[in-house]
Amino acid sequence: MSVLITGVAGFLGVHLASALLKDGETVIGIDNLSTGQIRNVRKLMDFETFHFMQFDVSDRRVLEFDLLYDVREIYHLASPASPKYYQAFPFDTIRANTDGTRNMLELALRNRAKLLYASTSEAYGDPERHPQPEEYCGNVNTWGPRACYDEAKRMGEVICYEYHHRFHVDVRVARIFNTYSAGLRNDDGRVISNFVTQAIGGEDITVYGDGSQTRSFCYVDDNIRGLRLMMKSKETNGEIINIGNPKEYSILEVAQLVKKLADSPSRITFHPLPKDDPKLRRPVIDKANRLLGWKPEIELDEGLRRTIDVYRAEFAAKVATPSSLR
């Protein structure tokens, strides 16, 4: 039996694959490398039980690969996930979450496999209900720069619903709230990677708006543990579950904390808030706790310290390497 991870070269994909491989699983990873990094794939090549396919899951021909006939678990993570990339590649984002999701559900139907679809807290949009439980239907703008991601993820959930109810596919949906660690690309525009990179480099820490908007940050190890529990549990079949940290911080608080932990001389500067940027974001995780016994264990201070240490080491190594060798 093998496990398939789409989007394996991305942030969550490489962490999930590494965890599964270390536990002795055979993992097949698919990624078209549009936003994923080949260096992430190379990290996994040390495992003999890892197989990589560079391919686009939204292409129907993905179902023809012989290697996939033994797949029994599918983690469908493929999609640009940061505003910088999904706004640059809107149609690729839509296809990955619609055509790609349907292809993976067809594979699950054919193989009688279980599927976990990685949705997002962005399904709640700019919420009018706070905090957000799974039954809240959201407040999403279909006519704006974030819609290609928000609405594509919501449509992916709809396709999962139809396959579950019409064809009895074993499927579960994880609505993932902001996840972070050192594995985030330092150029992807997400808040933690931005702040840490800027603080270490002594650059201005850029806060959008007045910094009063809130987020809930979940360290990647906690997130991966939640996803794996969702896949293994029979009780999650046909369920949507929030995976995130219920502790809420303002963006300004996070900027100040990063500056303090990094002992950085950086100034905090303020810039216009992007269109449709959510003002509030915090998950209700009662369902995850009840069905999985799951809750986050790593506090923001500790997660940021780990992240800063790795980014700082990478920054030092880059500075020490002549530009001709980079």
TrEMBL record:
Gene3D superfamilies: NAD(P)-binding Rossmann-like Domain (3.40.50.720). Transmembrane segments: none annotated. SUPFAM superfamilies: NAD(P)-binding Rossmann-fold domains (SSF51735). Its cofactor is NAD(+). It comes from the Bacteria. Residues 3-244 form the NAD-dependent epimerase/dehydratase domain. The keyword Cell inner membrane does not apply. Keywords: Decarboxylase, Lyase, NAD. Pfam families: Epimerase. This is NAD-dependent epimerase/dehydratase family protein.
